[in-house]
Amino acid sequence: MKSIHRYLLFSLIAALLFGTLLISLFLYKKSKHEINELYDSNMQALASVINAQYLSFNAIHQPISGVGKHSQRKEIHREEEFLVQIWKLSGEYVYASHPLIDFPRQAQSGFFTTRHKQKKWRVYTLETDQGFIQISQPQTARNLYIGELAAGLIFPLLLQIPLIGAFIWIAVGKSLRPLQRVSTAIQSRSAVSLDHLPTESLPIEICPVIDELNHLLTRLGKALAMQQSFTADAAHELRTPLAALQLQVDTLARSQDDVERHTAVTALQRGIMRAGSLVNQLLTLARLGPEFSRQSDIVELNQIVRAEIEQHLDQAVARHIDLGFSAAEPIFLEAHAASLHIMLSNLIDNAIRYSPENGKVDIRTYYTDAEVVLEVQDNASPIGSQDRERIFERFYRGSSSNGVSGSGLGLAIVADIVQQHHACITVKTRCDVLGNTFIVSFPKLSLATTLI
């Protein structure tokens, strides 16, 4: 498991170390460049002074002013020292500030770097009318001073690492403290506590997460409430068919002849079918959750209508119902195909069962300016205004049921599917003939979605 605290600490401290390293490298290179330029300038100035003071090398018979006494050392270790050598044009060796150092005259003029006895030397040669002035310095002497200067500059940078590191440690720990408070608040809650988490005094970066979590708790609360309501309603509704089955079994057990037994068996079969239908409807209603509706795709509505009409042809024929369908063009919408099948199945089944024999059920699909419309028309008794407001409630069966068997869940399932598709459903009484019209209006696909 990854730790944000550890990741931030390691990342920031690594960035600090890397930045310090880059700055140190830059300071070292910059110092080296500046020091080399400074010493080169000194060498050039020293050669110019010597050339200005002595116009004739023949006059040299004592140490040159500004150079100092002859050194008897064989090495130059101090960075401020130079090896000064003078030759006449004839090649006669006139002067050396360090006579014991064997360094030959270089043929090249100006500044250059050469190697002598496995050591690098920085050399400046000035050619005059009287001879040659050569100023030399071993690179090791320069490097010594460059190292000391760079160490003086880099040491404060290295000293800042533990100081800034400690500050980073404290800052990261303090910044993540609100997350620890939120974590503690969540851990201290019981499994049934769905109260919103407080967002006061929280950083603005954490507030969106807490807000989304609170929205999730709200949705979860609604889902649990619906689940509890569904469980209570289902338990209540299952009592009636189970009690009826028990009575029918008792009647069958008390039957004394074949006629009574046949009647009891027939009633028991009808009861089992009603109970099975109720259980299937309950299972369908239970699985129509929010996640089920999000698995949407572009579907052709007329194909789904034709498939459901084929599934209900036998039912319609058995009751001599004329089952018709009219559609002017293909109808496309964004929906979950399986949900639409369930919705249409319940609407068609409801229309067939409540329409009288030799009746007619018509299904239409068409476009409007902003919607996709599905209509299911039946010849059932008109639904009153009072029932019309409640027919989509679970287990509600209106006064116009006229003894038709049902669980009161079919239209509740239709309403759930319609809501999940952000559509709406209305019921109107037909004006031309006796019956009702169920109208489902879906949002029309945008042009961009259609092109995709």
TrEMBL record:
It catalyses: ATP + protein L-histidine = ADP + protein N-phospho-L-histidine. GO terms for cellular component: plasma membrane. It is a multi-pass membrane protein. Its main location: membrane. SMART domains: HATPase_c, HisKA. The keyword DNA damage does not apply. It is an enzyme of class 2 (transferase). It is found in: Membrane. Pfam families: HATPase_c, HisKA. This is histidine kinase. The lineage of its organism: Bacteria, Pseudomonadati, Pseudomonadota, Betaproteobacteria, Nitrosomonadales.
